[in-house]
Structure formats: C-alpha cells, structure tokens
Amino acid sequence: MKSKRKLIVILVFLLMATAFGGGVAYGKFLVFRDGDYAVAELERRGLIAAAADAAPAGEEAGENEGLGDGDTVNINTADVFVLQLLPGIGPKKAAAIIAYREEHGPFTASRDLLAVSGIGEATLAAIEPFVTVD
C-alpha cells in the first residue's frame, strides 16, 4: 500500500515539474519549458557557444527568436535540432546542411553555406551573425 502511494506521489511530482517547472531530465533527453534554460543547457554541452557580449553589427536585440545576443552555432558540429535555432532554418534546411557537411567535409567559412540546397544570399545574411566554423 505504501509503495503504491509513493509511486503516485512521484508521478504527480514529475507531472507538476514538467508542466510548471523548468523541466525534468529523462534518460538522455531533457524536457524543459524555459527557453533561457534550453540555451544555457546547449552552451553547457558545447553545442552552441556564447560569442560576444553585444549583438552583432546591424542586429537589434531580440530580433532572433532562437538564439540570444552573441550566441553562435558551430555549423561543423551542430545537429539538426541546434541548426534549427538559426533564423530561417527549419528541419529540411538543417538536414540539407548536415548532408552537405557529411558529403563534402567541414565548412571553412560561413559563405560555404551558399552551396547548400535551399540556402541563398537572404538566408545567409540572416544566419551569418550567428554562425561559426571553429
């Protein structure tokens, strides 16, 4: 009887933590609701890096929904989910970037992205302040 009650309490706690809290780690997946926490966790894991303290030249604060000011994504190591943090990059373009990278090797400059299907000058201009090839 006590173990059944304990299980119910744990399940209720997990549901409440997921619904109202910052999140719960489950295996290798993280479930979280706070975007700032998500970016901090990606930085901690080395998937994105905080670059400069100020916004890139020509960018207004808050213009990019996926990344914070000064955050960058290494296009040579980022997975499909991290690439989607870049403005204008959805699942298809992220997959195209990875496919190109796997076929042709690492990018040497952000302008190399122009060779990726679906990425033109406008997309490159939007993502270039957030891209690194380190």
Task: Give short descriptive properties of this protein.
single chain, 134 residues, alpha+beta, two-stranded antiparallel sheet, 5 strands
Topology:
Elements: H1 2-20, E1 23-26, E2 29-32, H2 35-44, E3 48-50, E4 71-74, H3 80-83, H4 91-104, H5 121-127, E5 131-132
Parallel strand pairs: 4-5
Antiparallel strand pairs: 1-2, 3-4
Describe the structure.
The N and C termini lie far apart (57 Å). The strands form two sheets. A three-stranded mixed β-sheet has the order 3-4-5. It has helices spanning 2-20, 35-44, 80-83, 91-104, 121-127, and strands spanning 23-26, 29-32, 48-50, 71-74, 131-132. By secondary structure, the chain is of the alpha+beta class. The longest helix is centred in the N-terminal third of the chain and has 19 residues, at 2-20.
User: Averaging pLDDT over every residue, what do you get?
Assistant: 74
The succession of helices and strands, N to C, reads HEEHEEHHHE
The fraction of residues in strands falls at: 5-15%
Structural class estimated from helices and strands: alpha+beta
Largest sheet: 3 strands, mixed
Helical residue percent?
A: 40-55%
Overall form: elongated
Please report the number of helical segments. 5
Strand order within the widest beta sheet = 3-4-5
Q: Could you tell me the number of beta strands?
A: 5
Low-confidence stretches: 24-34, 51-64
Gyration radius, to the nearest Å?
19 Å
Oligomer: single chain
Q: Compute the separation of the termini in Å.
A: 57 Å
